TrEMBL record:
<dbReference type="InterPro" id="IPR015813">
    <property type="entry name" value="Pyrv/PenolPyrv_kinase-like_dom"/>
</dbReference>
<feature type="region of interest" description="Disordered">
    <location>
        <begin position="27"/>
        <end position="49"/>
    </location>
</feature>
<keyword id="KW-0963">Cytoplasm</keyword>
<dbReference type="InterPro" id="IPR006318">
    <property type="entry name" value="PTS_EI-like"/>
</dbReference>
<dbReference type="GO" id="GO:0005737">
    <property type="term" value="C:cytoplasm"/>
</dbReference>
<dbReference type="GO" id="GO:0016301">
    <property type="term" value="F:kinase activity"/>
</dbReference>
<dbReference type="InterPro" id="IPR040442">
    <property type="entry name" value="Pyrv_kinase-like_dom_sf"/>
</dbReference>
<dbReference type="InterPro" id="IPR000121">
    <property type="entry name" value="PEP_util_C"/>
</dbReference>
<feature type="domain" description="Phosphotransferase system enzyme I N-terminal">
    <location>
        <begin position="13"/>
        <end position="134"/>
    </location>
</feature>
<keyword id="KW-0762">Sugar transport</keyword>
<feature type="binding site">
    <location>
        <position position="449"/>
    </location>
    <ligand>
        <name>Mg(2+)</name>
    </ligand>
</feature>
<dbReference type="InterPro" id="IPR024692">
    <property type="entry name" value="PTS_EI"/>
</dbReference>
<feature type="binding site">
    <location>
        <position position="299"/>
    </location>
    <ligand>
        <name>phosphoenolpyruvate</name>
    </ligand>
</feature>
<keyword id="KW-0460">Magnesium</keyword>
<feature type="binding site">
    <location>
        <position position="459"/>
    </location>
    <ligand>
        <name>phosphoenolpyruvate</name>
    </ligand>
</feature>
<comment type="similarity">
    <text>Belongs to the PEP-utilizing enzyme family.</text>
</comment>
<dbReference type="InterPro" id="IPR008731">
    <property type="entry name" value="PTS_EIN"/>
</dbReference>
C-alpha cells in the first residue's frame, strides 16, 4: 500500500483491541501446518498407528500444560487457564474415540487426527461469535498434534534477542501465553476479533494489539512498524516524529486513565453504575480488575454451549453463586438462557428447520417451549442468592411484548427470584416499552440485537457490519423510548463500551452501562469528563443526524474532552 506523498508504505488499519503504542521489527509466526491429504491410508498396522496418534495428543497436552505452568510463574494465570483448557481439548475422550475409529478403518494417524478435530471445529464455528473465537484454539491443538505426527516443526512464536512486533495470521493461546512482555512490543494479526484470545490475552498482558488487519502477514520480517493499539493502525517504517507523537498520545491517555477509578458518574455527579458483561466465573478477575460495580449481563448460555444434556441444578447453582459472591455490595444481572440463532444449545434444538434462525425460536420463545428448563434455572438462581447480600436481578432475552414480560415476571416470582426484568432488543418491545414497564422492575437494552433487527441485517453476516452500527439514528430512536419508559434502563450491548456512545446513551436517559471489562476505564473516564447536560446535548444532536457517521460527529462536537482520552 504505497503512500503517494512520501513514497513510504502507508498506514494499515485493523481493529485496535488492546491500547498502547509499540515500535519494533516484525517477526512472523512460523508457517501453517499443511492439511494431511484426504484419503491418506496407513500401512496396515492399526495398533501402531493408533498408539502414535494417541501419544502425539498426549504429548501436545503435556506441552500445553508445561507452557501454562511457565505462564503462571510469570503471573499470567489467565494464560495458564487458557492453555489448560486447550490441554483438555487434546485429552478429550470423544476426540480419542474419533481418532481410533478412523484409524481402524485404515485412515493414517495424521489424517485421522485432522478429521476428528474437524467434527468439533464445525460445532464451535456454528455456535455464535464467542464460541467461533475458540476455533483458533482448537486448530492450534490440532496443528500441534499433526505436526508431531508428520515430523514437521511445531508452529509457534519466533525466538528473538531484541524486542519485536509479533505478526501472525492468528495467534494461539499457547503462543501468546508464553511470550515475554519485555520482548514483545505489540501483536498484529490478520484474523481474530475483539473476543479472540489474541485480544483477551494481549489486554491481560498489557501489550498493544491490532487484530483483523488485512495484509498483516505480508509485512516482511524485519520491517520496523509502529503499532497503535488504540487507533487500530500499523505504520511501516515510521518517521521518528510519528513515533514520538504516537507515544505522547498514548502516555497522555494512560495518564488520563490512571485517575479513572471509583463508581461511574458524570462530571456533575450524576451516577451511572458501570457493570461488566461476563460469560461465567472465569471472567470475574478482569471485571474486578477494571473496577466493575457489578455484573450487568451474565450470559448464562456460555456455560452450557458444549453440553448435550441440561446442566444439573447443583452445577448451575455453583456457577451462579461464584459470580454473586464476587459483588457483595453490588448487583448481578443474570440473563436466562438465550438459546437459539447465534447461540444454539444442543439440548434445546429448534422445533424444526428454521429459514431465519435470528427470527425464530430463541431466547424467551425457546424457554416457553421448555418451561422446565426455565423453572430449573430460576430455582438455581434463587438458591444461589439465598443468604447473600448481592442484589440478584434476572432478565429474559428476546422479549417482544407485555404478555411475554408478564409471563417471565410470574415465573421469576414463583421461583423466588425477586427482581425480574427484560432485555429490550426487539424493535416492537422498544417502541412499546411503556406497555412492558409495568410488568417488570428493569430493562436492559441489547443494542447488538436491536441494531440487527432495526436494520434487518443479520449480525452473523460480516459483510453487513455497516448496517449494524448502533450509532444509526434509527437505533438511537428505539433506545430513547425504552430509556424513559418508567423503569431503570441499562444498556448491555457493545454500544455501552464505546466511550462517546456511552455518553449519548446516558444523555438519552439510560441509567447504567454494562460492557466487556477492558472497556470500563475509558468509559468511566469519558463520563467523568462530561456533564449530564453535555451528554443530553450530544444525544439530541446524534438523533437529529441523518446517518451513523453524522451522528457520531454531531455527538462528539458536544463531548469536547473525548480528545484528551485519545478517542
Ligand atoms: C445484545 O443483543 O445486545 C446483547 C447484549 O445480547 P447478545 O449479544 O448476547 O445477544
Ligand atoms: Mg441479544
Amino acid at each position: 500500500m504505497p503512500d503517494s506523498e512520501s513514497g513510504r508504505a502507508g498506514v494499515l488499519r485493523g481493529a485496535g483491541v488492546s491500547p498502547g503504542v509499540g515500535v519494533g521489527p516484525v517477526r512472523s509466526v512460523a508457517g501453517a501446518v499443511p492439511e494431511p491429504p484426504a484419503g491418506s491410508r496407513h500401512g496396515g498396522d492399526a495398533a501402531a498407528e493408533r498408539d502414535a496418534a494417541l501419544a502425539a495428543l498426549e504429548e501436545v497436552a503435556a506441552d500445553l500444560e508445561a507452557r501454562g505452568a511457565r505462564a503462571a510463574e510469570r503471573g499470567n494465570t489467565a494464560g495458564r487457564d487458557v492453555l489448560n483448557a486447550q490441554a483438555l481439548m487434546a485429552r478429550d475422550p470423544g476426540l480419542a474415540d474419533g481418532v481410533r475409529a478412523r484409524i481402524e478403518e485404515g485412515t493414517a494417524a495424521a489424517r485421522a487426527v485432522f478429521e476428528a478435530f474437524g467434527v468439533y471445529r464445525e460445532m464451535l464455528a456454528g455456535a455464535g461469535e464467542y464460541m467461533a473465537a475458540r476455533v483458533s484454539d482448537l486448530d492450534d491443538v490440532r496443528d500441534r498434534a499433526v505436526a508431531r505426527l508428520l515430523g514437521l516443526p511445531v508452529p509457534g512464536v519466533p525466538e528473538s534477542d531484541e524486542p519485536f512486533v509479533l505478526v501472525a495470521r492468528d495467534l494461539a493461546p499457547a503462543d501468546t501465553a508464553v511470550l515475554d512482555p519485555a520482548k514483545v512490543v505489540a501483536f498484529v494479526t490478520e484474523e481474530g476479533g475483539p473476543t479472540s484470545h489474541t485480544a483477551i490475552l494481549a489486554r491481560t498482558m498489557g501489550v498493544p494489539a491490532v487484530v483483523a488487519l488485512p495484509g498483516a502477514t505480508s509485512l516482511a520480517d524485519g520491517t520496523r512498524v509502529l503499532v497503535d493499539g488504540a487507533a487500530g493502525t500499523v505504520r511501516p517504517e515510521p518517521a521518528d516524529a510519528e513515533v514520538e507523537a504516537a507515544r505522547a498520545a498514548a502516555a497522555a491517555r494512560a495518564a488520563a486513565l490512571e485517575g479513572s477509578t471509583g463508581p461511574g458518574a458524570t462530571k456533575d455527579g450524576h451516577k451511572v453504575p458501570l457493570l461488566a458483561n461476563i460469560g461465567g466465573p472465569k471472567d470475574l478477575e478482569a471485571a474486578l480488575a477494571n473496577g466493575a460495580e457489578g455484573v450487568g449481563l451474565y450470559r448464562t448460555e456460555f456455560l452450557f454451549l458444549d453440553r448435550q444434556e441440561p446442566p444439573s441444578d447443583a452445577e448451575q447453582e455453583e456457577a451462579y453463586r461464584r459470580v454473586l459472591e464476587a459483588f457483595p455490595q453490588g448487583r448481578v444481572v443474570v440473563r436466562t438462557l438465550d438459546a437459539g440463532a447465534d447461540k444454539p444449545l444442543a439440548f434445546l434444538p429448534p422445533p424444526g428447520e428454521e429459514p431465519n434462525p435470528a427470527l425464530g425460536e430463541r431466547g424467551l420463545r425457546m424457554m416457553r417451549r421448555h418451561p422446565e428448563v426455565l423453572t430449573a434455572q430460576l430455582a438455581a438462581l434463587a438458591r444461589a442468592a439465598a443468604g447473600l447480600t448481592t442484589t440478584l436481578q434476572v432478565m429474559a432475552p428476546m422479549v417482544t411484548d407485555a404478555d411475554e414480560a408478564a409471563f417471565f415476571a410470574a415465573a421469576c416470582r414463583e421461583a423466588g427470584v425477586e427482581h425480574p426484568g427484560v432485555m429490550i432488543e426487539v424493535p416492537a418491545a422498544a417502541l412499546r416499552a411503556r406497555d412492558i414497564a409495568p410488568e417488570v422492575e428493569f430493562f436492559s437494552i441489547g443494542t447488538n440485537d436491536l441494531a440487527q433487527y432495526a436494520c434487518a441485517a443479520d449480525r452473523q453476516v460480516g459483510g453487513l457490519a455497516h448496517l449494524q452500527d448502533p450509532w444509526r439514528p434509527a437505533v438511537l430512536d428505539l433506545v430513547a423510548p425504552a430509556a424513559v419508559a418508567g423503569v431503570p434502563c441499562g444498556v448491555c450491548g457493545e454500544a455501552a463500551g464505546d466511550p462517546a456512545l456511552a455518553c449519548v446513551l446516558v444523555g438519552l436517559g439510560v441509567t447504567s452501562l454494562s460492557m466487556s471489562a477492558p472497556s470500563l476505564p475509558l468509559v468511566r473516564a469519558a463520563l467523568a469528563r462530561h456533564t449530564l447536560d453535555e451528554c443530553r446535548r450530544a444525544a439530541a444532536a446524534a438523533r437529529a443526524a441523518r446517518t451513523a457517521g453524522q451522528a457520531r460527529e454531531a455527538a462528539r462536537a458536544h463531548l469536547p474532552a473525548l480528545s484528551e482520552l485519545g478517542v
